[in-house]
What does this fold into?
Amino acid sequence: MPEPETAPGTLRPGGRTARVRAAVLRAAEDALIECGFDGIDLAEVARRAEVGKTTVYRRWGSPRVLVADLLDDMAEQSVARAETGSLDGDLRANARLVVRTLTDERQGALFKAVIAAATGDERTAEALHRFYATRIAEWAPCVTEAVERGEVPEGTDAAEVVRAVSAPLYYRFLASGDPLDEAVADRAAHAACCAARAGAYVEPRSSLAE
Amino acid sequence: MPEPETAPGTLRPGGRTARVRAAVLRAAEDALIECGFDGIDLAEVARRAEVGKTTVYRRWGSPRVLVADLLDDMAEQSVARAETGSLDGDLRANARLVVRTLTDERQGALFKAVIAAATGDERTAEALHRFYATRIAEWAPCVTEAVERGEVPEGTDAAEVVRAVSAPLYYRFLASGDPLDEAVADRAAHAACCAARAGAYVEPRSSLAE
It folds into this structure.
């Protein structure tokens, strides 16, 4: 499902630098999943990635830079949005994708590790925010097209509708610990759709707040 | 705003044991806010609380037990629900309270620290889930009373409506990093209210899913 990896502008696509980055990021991901952020050791990452220690220290320098680069890579590889033809269908596809990701053993552990790391480090937090901004921008057209189709009111804040789909899923995942399954995903999508139809996400709110 | 502290059944209310617990939990809270979970040292907590080290080691034994007890204490002190007479009003009061808590410098740092700690420790996660379960149960009557008043359909899942109010606020706080303010709180409450009125939180969903 992920789109083909796109190496950022500073790398030669498919070249040695890109291959090194891919191997190092994969090793960093493994370390995060197994040990969390505090378990990341650059020398160990280099060993696992079969890359010279000097390369890893010179290129990334610290675990937090490495994790920020991993988050940027995750954003680049984020799954393309759905185009089912209805807002309910698109949002449901989005919610189910989020649930599949968060309940996947590896991906779930990875998200917990990076979110925990972001609570204690500003640079990691910025990379995390960029990841979500990219994801929200990818899915926002589902809402703008629903506006064009007349499914939801003019002026609906597309990003906020996309956030509203993920929010109850992350709340369960990180805070309340309530179960996460397909039914929960569908309900999150349907609730966001209902609220959007009712104009709850129209900006400026003043005219529709009550 | 917090209700008066209620010592749990195993303590003599207001006695020395309760005073020791309060001092130790306050010191643990300070340590979490300043250094995060990994910065908690029982000897240092005892010193700050002006309590004997032996007492702290015997009673709590480890940082994770101490943090779990802090979360149980936070649940006991959780703010009483609003009774404004309308679902929109009650949910708005709830959302504004959550935003005030998460944007408060001390409380925000405390929540980030315990949520981060819960990602890596099952016992802390269970205490965190108890905290949210207590909070959700406290606010659920706002929804059941709205059902009785006919504001939202019979069979509305009250807990899920309460979760839906907090969810977009926590999503911004922990994941996307988008701003948290009173307008965001009001919109979260209003969206949950709209979705509830539309029947999005009625169980079983099958009859109202589409």
